[in-house]
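We now fix the convention by which a protein and its fold are recorded. The integers have meaning only within a learned vocabulary of local backbone shapes. The record below shows the convention in full.
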Amino acid sequence: MRYRTMPKNGDQLSILGFGCMRLPATPEGAIDEERAIAQIRRAIDAGVNYVDTAWPYHAGASEPLLGKALRDGYRQRVKVATKLPSWLIKSREDMDRFLDAQLARLETDHIDYYLVHALDGPLWDVVAGHGVTGFLDAARADGRIGNAGFSFHGLLPDFKRIVDAYPWVFCQIQYNYLDQAFQAGSEGLRHAADRGLGVVIMEPLRGGLLARPTPPPAVAALWETAPVPRAPVAWALRWVWNHPEVTLLLSGMNEESHIDQNLAVAEEALPGSLTEEETALVDRAARTYKELMRVGCTGCGYCMPCPMGVQIPKCFDAFNALHMSGDAETAKFHYAISVGGELGVSEPGFASRCVACGECLEKCPQHIAIPDILKDVAAQMEDAAMEQRLATAKRIFTVRPQ
């Protein structure tokens, strides 16, 4: 295993972190505890020393499972990361209640890396107004958390102002070779690193899309021209690790073969180890994937705010995922979560709310026919099962401490 240094505290962290959002499941949908615990311990035994979870993962079952997995001496071998569910915070007191409940669930007296979860600009303004910075200061002072950070799912200008608003130790962003200009993107990565923050990467494989053994034929043809043959997952992971600003990436390794494969790739993942020819090839693969997308949205957010509240970039992101991944149900559930109002302070922002006022057309630098495409999004994403998906999302993301 290779390790990189967290800039502000000197921690040596494995470049591969274990993400506990997609643990193996039983046929009934519960976590397969025996197998999940064995997988987590197998990764730790191989040198992984950073494990990430969150309050809502697996409908609240991920943190307790991780607590069990870290018994028998494993807790002392890792840094644990979990997250304050920011969308559920209604007061300063809520923050302490959630943190104390998480300590109990994880069977520990401290969280090494504690994140304010899933921030965008409006949600940051809310939790800041409730005193989250004072909470983080107090929790660090009394030892309940070691290092404060945040995860982000918004627009680049908001990311920059959040980075600059508090002396964070680290942040967590979505980043992969398709998302170089999405959300925080490459510019946000550099902005955070320039200010001394460690950067943890989520979705390095774009929800598994970039790891599929059989990619679209046009992409597969590109990989066949590579001077050094590699599996699609190796190209995706190595591209992220090629950036020296990246501290580590998280992988949801819910198959034993995933663990072995990710560990093998990590052994070769030095910063700057891809040649110019190889990085150019990855960029060509990214362009090819984007040609397969239904809408060329970069997520810049210039179209926002929509007067009707439509979450335009999030609608288009889910719509592209639907057509690129081939996994319709996962894409539609992602749509329900991201625009259904459960993960923020705004009202639901479904594509069907568009009234074709045309205001967004004047703002879009990509000259996308936004209202026309939103009609397609609504037709394909908002089917008869949407209410059930929303109910499931509400059940998962509104669990509160007892």
User: Anything to note?
Assistant: Residues 3-283 form a domain with the TIM Barrel fold (CATH 3.20.20.100). The chain has a mean pLDDT of 93. Residues 98 and 400 are 8 Å apart (CA to CA). The first strand starts at residue 3 and ends at 5.
